């Protein structure tokens, strides 16, 4: 990788695009070219992710929905009545209505998402479906030290809900910080219901992240399209290919965008080169065992009380209880 100064036209950028440019420059200036997976989710990226969840080889979404459906009675029985449900990264809230329906008189539902527009629409739809449950949407980024609105009932028992195995996209240290922060916010005696993808054979994992239909490849390559569009660059997208790589210790899938030939990238008046075979690392999806996740949660003040899996033990839904400090 080398850097030289060039003159290039200045383009007007939004704050988000300036952040993206910084992420790209950081990736190119470090010998290991890693970009946060958050940048994968522009409008098109979010649509492609929805398509991924329907793919035959992408088992996590439908497996988790199946576990929740099959065990709703047991889950509801394990959660006290009158609880306030706080969902992290709620998106379309599609897994939530059946849970709220099954719980005994939930005190309210706080869907939390970074995208305000999406959140308010999903909250309005849910409020129509479940008119007796107060829905109190909160625009917040769960990867930061978010706070709950002071208007929430203070003494209600709280249930954190974090489906989708999104926690797998965080490093163990960030996942620990998030779990510890939720322990503090939800309070002593709170519960946390969380979806976790389990480690398994790469024969199952690789096709889940590199499907024959090419949707995950399009999702990953969309990042380069976004970079070109928002930063006014001309990266040759055809020169990059999507790769899903499986690693152990810690068990994880990594998504990469690999350059087939040497590439020259002009970004913010500098020229960077990427040699053939070098890649941008765009996402990590950690895979746990029930025990390894329970250990991570225990370090953040949560005790595993119950868990439910599918018959093939591909995915787990874990119920944690906050240990009093
Ligand atoms: C959002 N997250 C849980 C997905 C995963 O499985 O790690 C993102 C994803 N990336 C490629 N396919 C799915």
Could you please describe the fold and organization of this structure?
The protein is of the alpha/beta class. The chain contains 10 helices and 14 strands. The chain has a 7-stranded mixed β-sheet, with helices on both faces. It has a 4-stranded mixed β-sheet with strand order 2-12-9-8. The N terminus is likely disordered.
Q: Going across the major beta sheet, what is the strand order?
A: 5-4-3-6-7-14-13
What share of residues is helical? 25-40%
- Number of alpha- plus pi-helical segments: 10
Mean pLDDT: 93
Cα(first) to Cα(last) distance is 49 Å
Shape: globular
- Work out the number of β strands: 14
What's the story with the biggest beta sheet?
7 strands, mixed
Helix/strand order: EHEHHHEHEHEEHEHHEEEEEHEE
Could you say which structural class the secondary elements and strand pairing correspond to? alpha/beta
Question: How much beta, percentage-wise?
Answer: 15-25%
Radius of gyration equals: 21 Å
Low-confidence stretches: 1-9
Q: Which ligands occur here?
A: N,N-dimethyl-L-histidine
Compose a concise summary of this entry:
35% of the residues lie in helices and 25% in strands.
Summarize the helices and strands and which ones pair or pack.
Elements: E1 3-5, H1 15-29, E2 33-34, H2 43-52, H3 60-70, H4 72-77, E3 84-88, H5 96-102, E4 108-113, H6 116-129, E5 138-139, E6 158-162, H7 172-186, E7 191-197, H8 202-209, H9 215-231, E8 240-247, E9 252-259, E10 263-267, E11 270-274, E12 279-286, H10 290-299, E13 302-309, E14 315-322
Parallel strand pairs: 2-12, 3-4, 3-6, 4-5, 6-7
Antiparallel strand pairs: 1-11, 7-14, 8-9, 9-12, 10-11, 13-14
Helix pairs in contact: 2-9
This protein binds N,N-dimethyl-L-histidine.
């Amino acid at each position: 990788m080398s850097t030289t100064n060039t003159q290039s036209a200045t383009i007007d950028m939004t704050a988000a695009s300036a952040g993206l440019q910084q992420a790209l420059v950081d990736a190119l200036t470090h010998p290991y070219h890693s970009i946060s997976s958050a940048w994968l989710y522009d409008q098109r990226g979010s649509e492609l992710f929805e398509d991924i969840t329907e793919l035959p080889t992408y088992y996590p979404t439908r497996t988790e929905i199946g576990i929740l459906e099959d065990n709703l009675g047991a889950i509801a029985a394990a959660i006290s009545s009158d609880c306030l449900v706080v969902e992290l990264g709620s998106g379309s809230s599609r897994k939530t209505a059946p849970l709220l329906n099954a719980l005994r008189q939930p005190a309210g539902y706080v869907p939390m998402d970074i995208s305000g527009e999406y959140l308010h629409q999903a909250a309005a739809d849910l409020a129509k479906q479940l008119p007796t449950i107060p829905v109190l949407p909160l625009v917040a980024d769960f990867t930061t030290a978010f706070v709950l609105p002071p208007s929430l009932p203070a003494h209600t028992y709280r249930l954190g809900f974090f489906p989708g195995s999104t926690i797998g996209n965080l490093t163990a240290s960030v996942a620990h910080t998030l779990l510890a922060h939720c322990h503090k916010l939800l309070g002593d005696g709170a519960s946390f219901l969380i979806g976790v993808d389990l480690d398994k054979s790469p024969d199952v994992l690789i096709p889940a992240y590199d499907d024959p239909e090419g949707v995950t490849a399009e999702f990953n390559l969309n990042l380069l399209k976004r970079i070109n569009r928002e930063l006014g660059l001309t990266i040759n997208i055809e020169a990059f290919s999507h790769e899903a790589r499986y690693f152990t210790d810690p068990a994880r899938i990594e998504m990469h965008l690999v350059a087939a030939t040497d590439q020259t990238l002009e970004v913010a008046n500098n020229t960077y080169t990427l040699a053939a075979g070098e890649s941008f690392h765009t996402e990590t999806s950690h895979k746990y065992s029930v025990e390894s996740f329970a250990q991570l949660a225990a370090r953040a003040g949560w005790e595993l009380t119950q868990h439910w899996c599918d018959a093939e033990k591909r995915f787990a839904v874990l119920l944690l209880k906050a240990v009093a400090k």
